[in-house]
Amino acid sequence: MSFIVDYYNYWIVVFLMMAGFYIVISANNLVKKIVGLNIFQTSVFMMYISIGKVQGGSAPIVADGITSYSNPLPHVLILTAIVVGVATTAVGLALVVRIKRAYGTVEENEFEDKDALI
Amino acid sequence: MFEQHFPVLPIVLPLIAAPLCMLLGRSQLAWLLATIVSGISFCIAVSLLMVTLDQGVLSYALGGWEPPWGIEMRLDVANALILSVVTGISTLVLVYAKDSIATEIPQSQHTLFYTAHLLCLTGLSGILTTGDAFNLFVFLEISSLATYTLVSLASDRRALTAAFRYLVMGTIGATFILIGVGMMYMKTGTLNMLDLAARIGEFEYNRTLNTGLAFILVGVSIKLALFPLHMWLPPAYTHAPSAVSAFLASTATKVAVYVMIRFIFTIYGAEYVFYSMGMDVILLVLAIVAIFNCSFVATVQSNVKTMLAYSSVAQIGYMILGISLVTTAGLMAGLLHIFNHALMKGALFMAVGAVFMRTGSADIKAFRGLGKTMPWTMAAFTIAGLSIIGVPLTAGFVSKWYLVTAALEQQHWMIAFLVLIGSLLAIVYIGRILEAAYFKDPVQSASDKTIKEAPLMMLVPMWILAVANIYFGIDTSLSVTAADAAANWLFEPSAQAVFQSASQSASELGAAR
Amino acid sequence: MILEVISTILLILGAFFSLTGAIGLFRFPDFFTRVHAASVTDSIATILIITGLILRTDFDLVAVKLLFILIFLLLTSPTASHALAKSARHGGLLTLAEIRESKKGDND
Amino acid sequence: MVELIDLVLLGMLAITALRVIFLKDLFAVVMLFGLYSFLSALIFVNLDAVDVAFTEAAVGAGISTVLMLGTLALTGRKEKANNHTALLPLLVVIITGAALIYGTLDMPPFGHPDNPAHQHVAPRYIEESPKEIGLPNMVTSVLASYRAFDTLGETAVVFAAAIGVLSLLGMPKPGGVAIDSGLKSHLVLRVVAKLVIPMTILFALYVQFHGDYGPGGGFQAGVIAAAAVILYALVFGLPLATHVVRPNFLKVLAALGVLIYAGTGVTSFFLGGNFLDYNVLASDPVVGQHIGIIVIEFGIGITVFAAMLGIFYGFAAQAERTNIQ
């Protein structure tokens, strides 16, 4: 039982990651691919934040009468990673817009039919 | 007065120059600034290589916070060597780019090209020098984002889809690395590479750490285009502007190979990765399949850039092969091939870029008769091509020689034989182009435009690399010494410990100064 | 003590209205009725919940911040609903009554 | 209690993710993604990561969703049905997932205070940073001082993204032809927007300068300020917005932020410290840290503001162009 209590969080997060990953690799529509990429990354962020949680701790901002804080380091890492994620999303979506203009479609199999990549 | 800051300068200088480039607005000025900054970084990198050869490891604590609390830059022989290659190639490519991008990228985008190039250089230098696992991820993403931009700058619409595919694969790779780093952090509580190494060393076999390593290796394999995960590379290199192809082919994947070396040897330790997890067999098989599959594919390509891209994937196979031999000699051969391959591929892609500029095509048909019309370009191409094949007196021969020796040392006759067969395939694909260039008559073009030799600004960097290919094929003292020292250092955990204490005294010295 | 009881009642009421809004969003037949369900209950739930929370503070800076949030939400949330309904209208969506009208017209 | 809330939120996330897989209407997919982001922000709050939650809400549920909607407006909202079977992706995902589950088996238990992650590096941040840096918000201390180089990299990433979007989509010309792009007929919207926008900018400033004491900082502030101008552009039209905040000005601002940040590091060189060592910026190390953090947070703020707004301008310019055609 304690086994489940110890790990349920990670397991659900793994499920979420894989849902995102599945969308990325199976979607044919480029916008959906980007959505999947974001879901994948957000789920990884959840894994990190779960690492940082301390039971009975509070947010890592010094306050009177609080002795136990959660670990601030994963929070810092994920702040950085979120920014990296949105940067990638922005460039990816810009590429999608340009692809639409160049090919008239954002479905992967359709523009691959028009132009073999190699 | 800046000597003690040298480890961080190859990252900081391009990072400062990138926004300045954008502010300058004029492409000429931006080009000048980018080239000068890249050149200075190269000089610094070379001096760092000399220092590390002399006294081992340099450590630089950013923000004055001692590791593992702060982020640390660590320079040893291995990354100083690759850093010199990256900054050197970057400088040459920038010189080359001035004329090359004039025909391939619209005028209004030129400053953006230089800015993105500098950001990419920042990222690559950062990946090489950092001693912190998460910091590595951040720099990986800087270089990747800049790369997507660079690839998509080409006017061909296929560049867009190539860049998109690259973006999706690259981000999946980076996220996998992030997962792996998270798992390492979870078990050890630290992100500093040396600290991680020390703490991972306490575990004999741990499922979380194994998974972490697996994810990191898969993520890095995507970035370095190891065989089944290489599908993003050929389109990206084919459709990117020539200067970008030349830069990426000779630096980006090499840096990723170095990241793999770093995770395997510095953090987990060869013992853990190869003996506990048996990764060497997997890497060995993938490397050999990569060499054969991609060399074969390269022989049937009609677009020369695509052919060179597949050849790159095959050559990466040789580097991984060196690593997977699990000996100092093998690792040294791998590192040496990183160095030499950068020289060859840089020159080859530059030559193809020059041909593309003059003929408007990178198809093998466009190469017909170029031996007469573009003699200098084709001569450089020939030298670098011979180097890829591994003809004696070229750099390629040296690294293949060491690779074969390393394999024979282990009694792996089969592997040594396969490496030689791989070279035969290289003869086929390089030979096709040389045949077209020297023994076929040019196709009569309708426009009846005479093809001129490439401009001097493009020939000079191309020839510097071509001459380097011969120089490092004859005088191997510098490259072999550095690669040997690096391999020894990476392979011996005890040596790392010794260097660690040495670096501490060095940093104390720096502090005293 | 009394404050706490009042606050609890307010919070439960707020939660209840939120829930009804959510059910309405599912059960109502067309777009306009759904927007109606969501936006009206949203406003009342916001008022109730934030007042409930304010009663639980020491009436310090936190209470002021909550008050700001309340004002902000009361400004933006009805506006958003309004904009939604208006653009639906703009896009040619008819209310149920109008659809019935037009059907009647067809039949005649 | 924490676990229960966590579990409920995770369950909702799982449902959202599954819906995203099967939905074909991309508009709904994007809205569900916004929801996903928002729910994960709630989980972050629940797990004590308030700064992260703030950022996720501003970025994931805010900027990312806006950009995705902008893309949909240009590419169409229906995903075409594809016939190819998704067996290979499913296989890859199952293998990857199984590897991850295998990896969890030796993980330290969730939330346990004796986990290695809480024992090694972090205690120093928790115990010493209020003294060494002098700020109550440890996340800001670690972000802006101990791991300032990461944050410099992050600023560079944002800058790189701005460069990428700029090269791909270009920028609108300021004061271009005022076609009817804003929501001119929406009187209520315009009045409320006029009320809300100044408040938003004020809030952004508060977040920027209060980040040392509570959740917030340059990144969140930059995003919020950009959101205020984006709202302005949506309600009053892009030409007017580009008149207020000119695209060329944004380019300068984005570059300037990175330069301010890196310049702070270089200043430490000249004062005898390592790169980004704030201790040397003033005679008292704690004051030096404070100065350094305020300056670099300012740098981050303006780069993020300029980059996010610039990226939005890029997308909006494409939309205008399509409208004209």
Automatic annotation (TrEMBL), chain A:
InterPro entries to which the protein is assigned, alphabetical: CPA3_antiporter_subunitC, NUOK/Mnh_C1-like
Entry keyword annotation includes Membrane: yes
Membrane topology: Multi-pass membrane protein
Gene Ontology CC: plasma membrane
Localization terms from the record: Cell membrane
Keywords: Cell membrane, Membrane, Transmembrane, Transmembrane helix
Cell membrane listed as a keyword: yes
Segments crossing the lipid bilayer: 7-25, 37-56, 76-97
Top-level lineage group: Bacteria
Annotated family: Belongs to the CPA3 antiporters (TC 2.A.63) subunit C family.
Matching NCBIfam families: PRK07375.1-6, PRK07375.2-3
Protein's recorded name: Na+/H+ antiporter subunit C
Automatic annotation (TrEMBL), chain B:
UniProt-annotated location(s): Cell membrane; Membrane
Residue span, NADH:quinone oxidoreductase/Mrp antiporter transmembrane domain: 132-425
Gene Ontology CC annotations of this record: plasma membrane
Molecular functions per Gene Ontology: NADH dehydrogenase (ubiquinone) activity
GO BP terms: ATP synthesis coupled electron transport
Claim: Repeat is one of the keywords in the record: no
TM helices/strands, residue ranges: 6-24, 31-53, 77-97, 109-128, 134-154, 166-186, 213-234, 255-275, 281-300, 307-332, 338-357, 378-402, 414-434, 454-474
InterPro entries found in the cross-reference section: CPA3_Na-H_Antiporter_D, NADH_UbQ_OxRdtase, ND/Mrp_TM
Sequence similarity: Belongs to the CPA3 antiporters (TC 2.A.63) subunit D family.
Protein name: Monovalent cation/H+ antiporter subunit D family protein
TrEMBL record, chain C:
Membrane-crossing segments per the record: 6-28, 35-55, 61-80
Residue ranges of coiled coil: none
GO molecular function: sodium:proton antiporter activity
Keywords linked to the UniProt accession: Membrane, Transmembrane, Transmembrane helix
Record-linked InterPro entries: PhaG_MnhG_YufB
Listed name of the protein: Monovalent cation/H(+) antiporter subunit G
Organism: Thalassotalea litorea
UniProtKB/TrEMBL annotation, chain D:
Domain Na+/H+ antiporter MnhB subunit-related protein as annotated: residue spans: 188-309
Transmembrane segments: 6-22, 29-47, 53-74, 86-105, 156-175, 187-207, 219-240, 252-271, 291-316
Annotated ranges, domain MrpA C-terminal/MbhD: 12-76
Keyword Nucleotidyltransferase: no
Pfam short name (any one): MnhB
Record carries keyword Membrane: yes
Residue ranges of every copy of the MrpA C-terminal/MbhE domain listed in the record: 115-175
Organism, as annotated: Thalassotalea litorea
Protein name: DUF4040 domain-containing protein
GO cellular component, one term: plasma membrane
